[in-house]
Task: structure prediction
Amino acid sequence: MSYQWLDTWWWPYVFIAVAGWLATDLWRWLGVVVGARLKDDSLLLIWVRAVATALVAAVIAKLVLYPSGELKHVPVALRLLALGLGFAAFLALRQRVWVGIAVALAVLIGGQLLLG
Result:
């Protein structure tokens, strides 16, 4: 058996499709099977939500405090102000995610226009 077929043009696409499918669908189906048996207020589900929330908070903190790309040219104070005002709007207006994002973007864009 030779490995000549690894050099064909289509092999990377097959590998990505199979590896991507196995890596995601396996866990999705496992989540469906296990999740159907969990109560909404079970300790395991509360822990999973807490971990997911912590991961999202960590990603947001990294983007605000250690940004890459064009965001690193925005002053830290403006980034923190946008984060704070966006979160305040989210809480004040019945916890609608799009409101918080829109306010934070408006503060960032408005601050950049005023500063630059």
Notes: The CA atoms of residues 52 and 71 lie 25 Å apart. The chain has a mean pLDDT of 89. Residues 74-116 form one domain.
